[in-house]
Design goal:
The chain starts with 24 loop residues before the first helix and ends with a strand. A seven-stranded mixed beta sheet has the order 3-2-1-4-5-7-6, sandwiched between helices. It is of the alpha/beta class. Helix 3 packs across helix 6 and helix 4 crosses helix 6. It contains nine helices and seven strands. The longest helix is centred in the last third of the chain and has 17 residues. 34% of the residues lie in helices and 15% in strands.
Length: 275
């Protein structure tokens, strides 16, 4: 069951997000379960799958408090958020960007608007923190970035009315998804294909190989309960070995983030299913 969205703009991600799934949805579509009562996404990121499915009941979560705050504000205070974003759009420039990047205080609305502003204007829409947990991505080279899209935010807000948003680690899904009427989609930081392609370090707590093993263990427990589970990750021996025994589909994705444009192109990923 999906939520109807009367907005003129169909719901879609309002954030740029590394590894976002918007361009892969057509490949994922055949593998989504047709019927379920509640949807869970423990690594919400840009939320492309959530906005595509528009489930009637959903739980979204992440360990990034600023990201969770953004979703909370889009859902419950979208008009106030739009007003703050319009202020950022009016003042955007080199000096203003770095002033906002250095700021780390303010109300929930101010923090959410700053997060979206930086997301829309930073290099490649990349989210990365230094060892102190401070956002440290340089300004992008956009001539006219779309900082505030009111109709898109309102559309996202409508869809988010069916969701609860929490700050919590992925392992807590075991306390909530318990039956075959639950559908869980995992989109964790991908396991690096090489020492120079470590895209897991977007925040202070990089997602390690041991974290991947723990996630596999959670996947197995959920599958044994009959929960419908899907998981995306990089196509490598380590991930394929972790999930041996489960159906694995190969997905063709575009590598969008690389400092060398010549190295951006097609790369295979895996989609693992519980059954």
């Amino acid at each position: 069951m999906t939520v109807d969205c009367p907005s003129r703009i169909p719901p879609r991600p309002f954030l740029k997000w590394a590894g976002g799934k918007s361009r892969l949805l057509a490949q994922y579509q055949p593998w989504f379960p047709q019927d379920y009562s509640r949807y869970y996404e423990p690594f919400v990121g840009g939320g492309a799958v959530f906005f595509h499915l528009r489930p009637a009941s959903a739980t979204l979560s992440d360990i990034n408090p600023e990201l969770v705050n953004v979703y909370d504000c889009v859902r419950s205070q979208v008009e106030a958020l739009i007003q703050q974003l319009e202020i950022h759009a009016q003042h955007h420039g080199h000096e203003y960007y770095y002033q906002m990047r250095a700021a780390d205080q303010g109300s929930s609305i101010e923090r959410a608007a700053r997060f979206i502003y930086l997301n829309k204007t930073c290099f490649n829409g990349l989210y990365r923190e230094n060892s102190q947990g401070k956002f440290n991505v340089p300004m992008g080279r956009y001539k006219k970035p779309t900082i505030c899209n009111p109709e898109l935010l309102r559309s996202a807000s409508m869809t988010l009315q069916a969701a609860q948003v929490y700050l919590r680690p992925f392992s807590e899904i075991l306390q909530h998804a318990t039956t075959s009427q639950d559908f869980v989609y995992f989109d964790p930081p991908y396991h690096p294909l090489s020492t120079t392609s470590d895209f897991t370090a977007y925040s202070r707590g990089a997602f390690t190989a041991q974290d991947q093993v723990q996630l596999r263990d959670v996947f197995v427990i959920l599958a044994e309960r009959g929960v419908r589970v899907m998981l995306s990750n990089s196509d490598c021996d380590f991930i394929r070995d972790l999930y041996q025994g489960f159906p694995i589909r190969t997905i063709q994705a575009a590598r969008a983030i690389n400092s060398n444009p010549a190295k951006r192109g097609k790369i295979s990923e895996v989609l693992v299913m519980s059954s």
